[in-house]
Amino acid sequence: MRLKFVVLDANIIIRSVFGVKVGRLMQSVGDNACFLTPDVCLEDAEEYIPKIAACKGLDLALVTEGFGRISSIVEVVPASLIIANINQRP
User: Fold this and answer.
1) How does DSSP assign 12-73, residue by residue?
2) What is the DSSP letter of 4?
């Protein structure tokens, strides 16, 4: 089977931390996919996750741990690299 590349934006990263469905989906395809995110998306998620956790009254340590797990399986690439590859597609 061919390896698939899945590009995640900040919203999907945030949903993977706070929700269940995205994380499960990522686990189910994990061996057959490489998850990529532009550097700016990971930075955005990192900025907003503590704010969302505070609004929801969630334990920041647990949320940070969840973000760390997601970050460990996502490869961060420069946004310019992804944009360049998108622009080269027919």
Assistant:
1) HHHHHHH-SHHHHHHHHHGGGEEEEEEHHHHHHHHHHHHHHHHHHT--HHHHHHHHHHHHHH
2) E
DSSP 70-83: HHHHEEEE-HHHHH
The residue among 65, 67, 63, 87 whose CA lies nearest residue 76 is 67
Per-residue confidence in pLDDT tens, the chain, 90 aa = 677 888 899 999 999 999 888 888 888 877 788 899 999 999 999 999 999 999 999 999 999 999 999 998 899 998 887 677 776 666
Chain Cα centroid distance, residue 27: 12
Identify the burial level of 67 via C-beta atoms within 10 angstroms of its C-beta, where 0-12 means exposed, 13-18 middle and 19 or more buried. buried
Separation CA 90–CA 29 (nearest Å): 26
Instruction: Label the pairing between strands 33-38 and 74-77.
Output: parallel
